[in-house]
Amino acid sequence: MKILILHNEYQQYGGEDTVVKNEVKLLQGAGHSVYVEIISNHQINGIWSKLNAALGLVFSWKSYFAVRKLIKEIRPDVIHVHNFFPLWSPSIFYACKSLKTPVILTLHNYRTLCPTALLMHDGQVTEKSINDGPWWSVFKKVYRGSLLGTFLLALMISVHKYLGTWNKQVSKFIVLTHFAKDKFSTAGFPANKIVVKPNFVDITFDQSQKILDSTFLFVGRLSEEKGINTLKKAVEKNNTFKVTVVGTGPQADELCHSNFNHLGKQSLESVFKQMQEHTVLVMPSIWYEGFPMTLVEAYANGLPVIASRIGALEELVEHQVTGLLFEAGNPESLAQTMQWALDHPQEMYQMGINARKKYEQSYTAQKNLQQLEDIYMDAIQSCHNERSN
């Protein structure tokens, strides 16, 4: 197949960028012709570029014609869009439709439903945007504390819901979990076009080399939605807890405590080494995670996960099989769960074995390649059927 990948990078490299890189490599390795067109938010570096980005947020004629040009030059069988915000804009889906080219959108977050992209405000999960629309968020300035920025995002969401962009212009949607599919379906996205395909990693690991210790591991951005305060308070309840922390973020200072070994930002190889040398990964998130790459990386490295019982995490972590679940945002519940893990090392070791098995069953490169190819072929066939009618 001839595949065109479109993506808008954020200024800070993140999980979506890793997914794009991994999928491109996967498809190329399978012999597909893959063309990648990436634009970056680093381009937004002055007053005029910021103004142009704002004006094109709802519909960018520049992006519309750029994608039409790409389609005419490349003549792809299918187009796969990851992030379109803010520079591509939803206009690119109209460009694909105008040239009768099937297009898939991976919904990595909830940006098409809520200006926060997280379904979260003031440290609490909120589904107001799903139930009542996005306009409640404008005077709350939920997007970077900006009234104008939040207004433009609410306008983008409302306009494209009114126009039926997601129902009419996109061939297929990829979501990462069944939880996400339920949320998007509830919000009006066509359920028959939504396909669940998780993320993947390609890691070889020998469980017999696993090192048992009594140290917990946290890997991720040190920010409110990741449950840093919950983790801090849980550790304060028990001075025997030792936590290795990998990552940076605005709440890094919260973990200035002798029980935390803060390593800062690390290479992926170093992260995997940490995963192979720890007993359990802690994911105390208080928001609706998409599909954390950290989780599938942990499973691939034979590492069980202690996770909040919230959103997709409850779906991804099978309690006392591949990890343990605790009440989201509750330090006491987390502390009790961490203590249970320390008291039951053999059970945790078995959960690590189960986690690796789960990875091999669901999250390998080969499994993902087959799923991607099937989604592409379905989109191509659907587009062909539309043209025939």
Automatic annotation (TrEMBL):
Glycosyl transferase family domain: which residues? 214-357
Name all Glycosyltransferase subfamily 4-like N-terminal domain ranges: 15-204
Question: What GO molecular functions are on record for this protein?
Answer: glycosyltransferase activity
Name of this chain's protein: Glycosyltransferase family 1 protein
Q: Which PANTHER family match?
A: SULFOQUINOVOSYL TRANSFERASE SQD2 (PTHR45947), TRANSFERASE (PTHR45947:SF13)
Tell me which UniProt keywords the record has, alphabetically. Answer: Transferase
For this protein, the record's InterPro entries field holds: Glyco_trans_1, Glyco_trans_4-like_N, Glycosyltransferase_grp1
Q: Which Gene3D superfamilies match?
A: Glycogen Phosphorylase B (3.40.50.2000)
Q: Which organism is it from?
A: Acinetobacter cumulans
* Translocase listed as a keyword: no
Question: Keyword Transport: yes or no?
Answer: no
SUPFAM superfamilies to which the protein is assigned, alphabetical: UDP-Glycosyltransferase/glycogen phosphorylase
